[in-house]
Design brief:
Elements: H1 21-53, H2 56-63, H3 69-96, H4 100-118, H5 127-141, H6 145-154, H7 158-186, E1 194-196, E2 201-203, H8 208-227, E3 232-233, E4 239-241, H9 248-260, H10 263-295, H11 299-331, H12 333-350, E5 361-362, H13 377-381, E6 391-392, H14 406-435, H15 441-469, H16 471-491, H17 499-502
Parallel strand pairs: 5-6
Antiparallel strand pairs: 1-2, 3-4
Helix pairs in contact: 1-6, 1-7, 1-8, 3-4, 3-5, 3-6, 3-15, 4-5, 4-8, 6-15, 7-11, 7-14, 10-11, 10-14, 10-15, 10-16, 11-12, 11-14, 12-14, 12-16, 15-16
Length: 508
């Protein structure tokens, strides 16, 4: 077995003189080629999610006028619910079979579900249910995130891992940039677009992104099949096995790791990851309805402007990931996680409504007119020049809750764009280090399921709280949740350390 000293992902590994130089070079190159395929898989998964996120609400309104903001919460949550169910399954699968199998299967499911989403307008009834089901299947396919994280954790040494996880998160952030940017570009196709008759597809600003996401899925499958190879190293960077389910040595290591893992640290890490993902799910779900209510944006404006804003947050996140790698090396993973939570708190605190300016009330100029009862909203809304804008008067809080200013909205976006990526990458980097040298597929599956559970409950919570109580109560509750996460992290701070450090094999 080749002896590999510690290194980061930008420095070539030093070779053992007793081993073959060519073999050593090829193992190293193959390992990092495979890790980069995982980066691309995370990137494509991120694009596939964000490319439709800003148009979900207007698309839902267009295909089914019976859908409301509360149902939007369920549509957004369906993705995460599907991912929550799939993550442990794919994680367990990857522990006993080559990762290529669950990856290809999950990507095919994701690809098919995006095509289903593009045709959600076609049935004559229950269109919103078809949209809900398509997003659930897209999420089920995205359960491969657990496989991606477990592969990268197992294929990197302890010293390489923070950098590799940060790089993977940067690729995810690039996906968050490209997805909304592509959606913003495709918004110029318009709501009507063109009809491709031979496949009975209406290609417009809502369906084109899903078709493009399906095309990305095809590229991803080719990368996984042609490039990915199995690699696994221990915390010191020594190769353990070539294929994860054939080496007997890994079983011994797994049993030892299973007996000595700090389960309190594992549970705490899952809880913190749940809170981080819950908070971000709230943010991404409420962005479009909030901006339409507070700034009286039309559906097209909301898709375009929020796409630009999320694109900007993505660029910001990449810078944060670069700084996280440096800050983690200097101060450690835990202080960076704590600082990220504090910044998120500031972001939501700033978003609380204040002042004497109130939002424009939708239909305020018509609601006292006797003709309103004779004119349906659907009829008026069908005329683009008369699309209703502003805060719906059915939401009673619109009449007494101050409006959120655009400057507040932008500042909050900026702060959350700093805090969330720092918390995200530190959460699963710490988690992978706590687990140590065992195959991490199942554990990563549970972590992903924890995050997916948060992304399931977050949209439902915020759509209900926002619709019934308004932004003041919704964001105050989020601030309280962040404070709870800070208290939890502080109380178990001393236990969130790497497996090898805990057992004295490596000095932190």
């Amino acid at each position: 077995m080749s002896q590999l000293p510690e290194c980061d992902d930008t420095t070539p590994l030093l070779r053992d003189d007793a081993s073959s130089d060519d073999s050593q070079d090829e193992d190293y190159k193959s390992r990092w080629r495979s890790i980069r395929v995982m980066y691309f898989t995370m990137f494509f998964s991120s694009v596939g999610f964000t490319i439709v996120i800003t148009s979900l609400w207007p698309y839902l309104q267009k295909i089914d006028d019976s859908a409301n903001a509360s149902f939007l919460g369920w549509v957004v949550a369906a993705y995460s619910l599907g991912q929550m169910l799939a993550s442990p399954i794919f994680g367990l699968w990857s522990n006993h079979r080559p990762r290529r199998e669950p990856l290809v299967c999950s990507i095919i499911i994701n690809l098919s579900a995006n095509i289903y989403y593009a045709y959600a307008y076609l049935p004559r009834t229950n269109n919103k249910i078809h949209m809900l089901m398509s997003r659930a299947f897209v999420g089920f396919g995205a359960g491969n995130v657990a496989v991606v994280r477990s592969y990268v954790a197992g294929a990197t040494s302890l010293k390489e891992r923070t950098g590799a996880m940060a790089n993977m998160s940067a690729c995810q952030a690039l996906g968050f940039i490209l997805g909304p940017a592509l959606q913003a570009c495709l918004s110029f196709i318009g709501e009507h677009g063109v009809t491709v008759k031979f496949i009975d597809l209406q290609l417009n600003m809502y369906t084109a992104p899903a078709i493009l996401a399906a095309a990305f899925g095809l590229v991803n499958i080719l990368l996984v099949v042609l490039v990915l190879r199995e690699h696994r190293v221990d915390d010191d960077g020594r190769h353990i096995q070539a294929i994860n389910y054939t080496a007997e040595e890994s079983d011994d290591i797994s049993e030892e790791a299973e007996e000595t893992i700090d389960q309190v640290a594992v549970l705490t890490s899952n809880a913190l990851f749940f809170i981080v993902m819950f908070i971000f799910a709230v943010f991404e779900t409420i962005a479009t309805p909030l901006s339409m209510d507070m700034f009286a944006w039309t559906r097209k404006e909301a898709v375009l402007y929020n796409g630009i804003i999320i694109c900007g947050i993505g660029f910001e996140s990449i810078l944060v990931f670069l700084l996280v790698k440096i800050a983690s090396q200097r101060y450690g993973d835990r202080p960076v996680l704590l600082a990220g939570l504090a910044i998120i708190f500031c972001g939501f605190f700033i978003l609380l409504p204040w002042g004497n300016h109130y939002p424009k009330i939708q239909w305020a100029d018509l609601k006292n007119n006797s003709l309103v009862s004779q004119i349906s909203k659907a009829t008026i809304a069908s005329n683009n020049s008369m699309e209703p804008t502003g805060c719906p008067y059915e939401q009673t809080w619109c009449q007494y809750t101050p409006a959120i200013h655009l400057a507040q909205y932008i500042t909050s976006d900026f702060l959350i764009g700093v805090g969330y990526p720092a918390c995200n990458v530190m959460s699963y980097t710490l988690y992978s280090k706590i687990l140590g040298p065992k195959p991490q597929g199942v554990y990563m599956g549970w972590l992903t399921a924890s995050g997916s559970g948060a992304r399931t409950l977050g949209p439902v919570f915020v759509s209900q709280a926002y619709t019934m109580l308004g932004p003041r109560w919704a964001f105050s509750l989020i601030c309280g949740m962040v404070v709870g996460a800070i208290i939890l992290l502080s109380s178990v701070y001393h236990r969130l350390i790497a497996f090898s450090v805990r057992h004295g094999r490596i000095i932190e």
